[in-house]
Design goal:
This protein is of the alpha/beta class. The protein has one domain. Strands 1-7-6-5-8 form a five-stranded mixed sheet, covered by helices on one side. The mean pLDDT is about 80.
């Protein structure tokens, strides 16, 4: 049985990943910018990749992220290599430093 992105997000929420992170050039943000989390302040706990059936532009990735410094756990959903703005080398390295992969 194929697991959907919605199923994965629901399971992560049950595991305590309740924040919704947004990726910025130099950091992650949540709570409308109340928390700004830099590359050395978070850990990628799990990664789930979803490939589009017919269109590579439909590919996406779900990150389960924790920040011990801020005591936050959350989710970042993004397309493969499609970002709202260019990322720094540090952010790219942090997002590519994956834990478990589906």
């Amino acid at each position: 049985m194929e697991t959907t992105m919605t199923d994965i997000i629901a399971q992560l929420r049950k595991e305590g990943y309740t924040e919704d992170f947004n990726v910025k050039q130099h950091c992650l943000e949540c709570h409308d910018g109340e928390y700004v989390i830099f590359h050395n302040e978070f850990v990628i706990d799990k990664v789930f990749r979803f490939e589009g059936m017919s269109d590579p532009d439909d590919e996406s990735i779900v990150y389960a992220i924790s920040s011990p410094r801020y005591r936050l756990k959350g989710i970042l959903v993004n397309g493969y290599g499609i970002y709202s703005e260019p990322l720094t080398d540090e952010m790219l390295a942090a997002l590519n430093n994956t834990g478990q992969q589906r």
